[in-house]
Amino acid sequence: MGLAKGVAEAELEKNLSRTFTLMIRSTKKEDHLPGGSVNVSKVRERGGLLVGLPEDPPPSSLLPEPVLQYYIQQYQKSGFRGPLNWYRNMPANWKWNASAQGRKIRVPALMVTAGKDKVLHPAMSKHMEEWIPQLSRGHIEECGHFTQMEKAIAAPWGGVKT
Fold it and tell me: In 3D, which of 93, 91, 94, 133 has the Cα closest to residue 111?
């Protein structure tokens, strides 16, 4: 017997194509949605994350049909419970992170911020160097949350880098 779906899972899993097409969009003018974009504030008061957004949204430039179908196949198997539980566990994560105070991450790391990221604003990465001495930074001003998709460039080894 499976676990009962929560309200958030039910909304996001109702129409996976709609969910991903609404959520994974670039900052390009042609990707703007009629009626606004996904807004994570006051979700309960509005009655859901996707309330008021188009039922049949226009395609997203970041989601070619094969990529969209891959996401749909994967989430049909696993659903949104795992990803949502990461957010539900934030108070415990904060407590655990506080226990690491004074420790440093001692491997090279890269932080790429984006000027139009409404979820992870560049200011949220201030002072990372104190905890990650080998931090390198990149910033893409004209980009949103999905930097690796919106501003991907070909890497010398044939892959993609941002």
Answer: 133
Query: pTM value?
Result: 0.80
**Which residue in 118, 127, 125 sits closest to 147, CA to CA?**
118
Which ranges of 4-115 does DSSP label H, i.e. alpha helix?
A: 7-14, 16-23, 43-46, 65-78, 81-88, 90-98
Two structure tokens written together for 140 = 């893409």
| Residues 22 and 38 sit within 8 Å (Cβ to Cβ) | yes
Euclidean distance between CA atoms 161 and 148, whole angstroms: 7
Structure-block tokens of residue 102: 């004074």
Give the confidence band of 107 by pLDDT, cuts at 50, 70, 90: very high
